[in-house]
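Germin-like protein (Arabis alpina), 201 aa
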Amino acid sequence: MKSLSTFLALALTLSLAFASDPSPLQDFCIGVSDPADGLYVNGKFCKDPNLAILSDFVITGLNERRPINDPIGSNVTFVNVDNLPGLNTLGLAFARADFEVNGQILPHTHPRASEILFVTEGSILAGFVTADDTGNRVFSKVLNKGDLIVFPLGMVHHAVNVGKGPAVAFGILNSQNPGMITIANTKVLGSNLQDFLASVV
Ligand SMILES: *[C@@H]1O[C@H](CO)[C@@H](O)[C@H](O)[C@H]1NC(C)=O
């Protein structure tokens, strides 16, 4: 009897030690006390499987070059749960990035995904910076056709076309909705945050 209660206590302790909340699938999911106040799940609702259609699972045309209208010189085409609903709950997303000469994707981070970037055309200088507690080290390299780099979860990374012609890379990310925080857009010291801090001091 004593050993049974010891076993149960141990089992309970272990189950508590290993329990954790599921990771968020979107930037935030604010709790409501009453479902009548709003109805939203963490992620998307699931369609009746019998109503699934081919286009829930297929996107075509990612071989086509994208026009680049942005002064930053790149165009990123995302494939995530918003435009490929079959990705819901699968923990996967994809992207095509087109670069003109000197075009870049500014330093950014994905709060919910690690990323593999695979170059299929041109020469792209790509890299990431490690966290403060590992000394903000930079891992960066010029990648040519057939080369890839992995950006670990949450690390700030960037890519620049350093070649003499257009460049193309594809990204594979392990979240259905990786999220994207471009450091320049948050204007950390420049700054929306700075303006906010100034307004409260
Ligand atoms: C990216 O390409 C799409 C067409 O696929 C176009 O509509 C969009 O304006 C382009 N965006 C940028 C930033 O160049």
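The first strand starts at residue 74 and ends at 79. The pocket of 2-acetamido-2-deoxy-beta-D-glucopyranose is lined by residues 66-70, 75 (CB under 6 Å). ok done for today
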